[in-house]
TrEMBL record:
GO molecular-function terms, A-Z: nucleotidyltransferase activity
SUPFAM superfamilies associated with the record: Nucleotidyltransferase
The keyword Cell inner membrane is annotated on this UniProt entry: no
Pfam families to which the protein is assigned, alphabetical: NTP_transf_2
UniProt keyword list: Transferase
Source species of the chain: Deefgea piscis
Polymerase nucleotidyl transferase domain: residues covered: 94-127
InterPro entries per record: NT_sf, Polymerase_NTP_transf_dom
Superkingdom: Bacteria
Name used for this protein in its record: Nucleotidyltransferase domain-containing protein
Classification lineage: Bacteria, Pseudomonadati, Pseudomonadota, Betaproteobacteria, Neisseriales
Length: 202
């Protein structure tokens, strides 16, 4: 292994550790923001370091083990909030994606949902009828690498992001194992609660 390769590996480790800390402190909302901010603070080149998703996930798991005794409880609460939202938006066939589903979220993490409608305005009208204040912007998606509306609002002190995709995209999502519908999330919560109960009885 060359000196350059060793240095890059060391820098990636430092960046991942700092990125994990930023996410848990609520100073970064997602991996990409945490990576850029960590590189900036450490004086590293983000292009040289690369995406480092796996490294950040590993660093977060280590950080949670050391410094977050309430991690399981916080994650459960976020998943329960997501489940309530999915029931609320059931007409738009919602799926949960992101760190809360993967299990590497912090208590400051956003809830990220995919919802499906051929007319994004229908989702906005639904929110207006429910008197929910929201903001909207265009965001790049995996579906045909196009922009789609993303709606943001707050629910029970947690920020929520709804990414609106056309109905046909529901069957064409690139990473189906990285999303969960209502029943799948409900089962995941039940499994986690069962595991926690068994652990507390030991």
């Amino acid at each position: 292994m060359s000196i350059t390769t060793t240095l890059i590996s060391s820098h990636r480790d430092k960046m991942a550790q700092r990125a994990a800390q930023l996410i848990h402190e609520g100073r970064a909302k997602n991996f990409e923001q945490a990576r850029r901010q960590a590189c900036l603070e450490l004086g590293l080149s983000s292009k040289e370091i690369g995406a480092c998703t796996a490294e950040i996930e590993a660093a977060m798991a280590h950080y949670q083990h050391l410094f977050c005794p309430d991690f399981d409880e916080d994650l459960l609460k976020l998943r329960q909030k997501a489940l309530a939202l999915m029931l609320f938006f059931q007409q738009f066939e919602p799926y949960l994606v992101g760190s809360i589903l993967k299990g590497n979220a912090s208590k400051h993490s956003d809830i990220n949902l995919l919802v499906y409608s051929d007319d994004p305005k229908i989702v906005e009208i639904f929110l207006l009828n429910q008197q929910i204040d929201y903001s909207s912007k265009e965001r790049k998606t995996q579906y045909r690498q196009t922009d789609s509306p993303t709606i943001a609002f707050w629910f029970d002190q947690t920020e929520v992001h709804l990414q609106i995709l056309p109905s046909v995209a529901r069957h064409q999502y690139a990473k189906k194992n990285e999303r969960a519908n209502y029943r799948q999330l409900q089962q995941l919560i039940a499994d986690c609660q069962s595991t926690q109960t068994l652990a507390s009885e030991e």
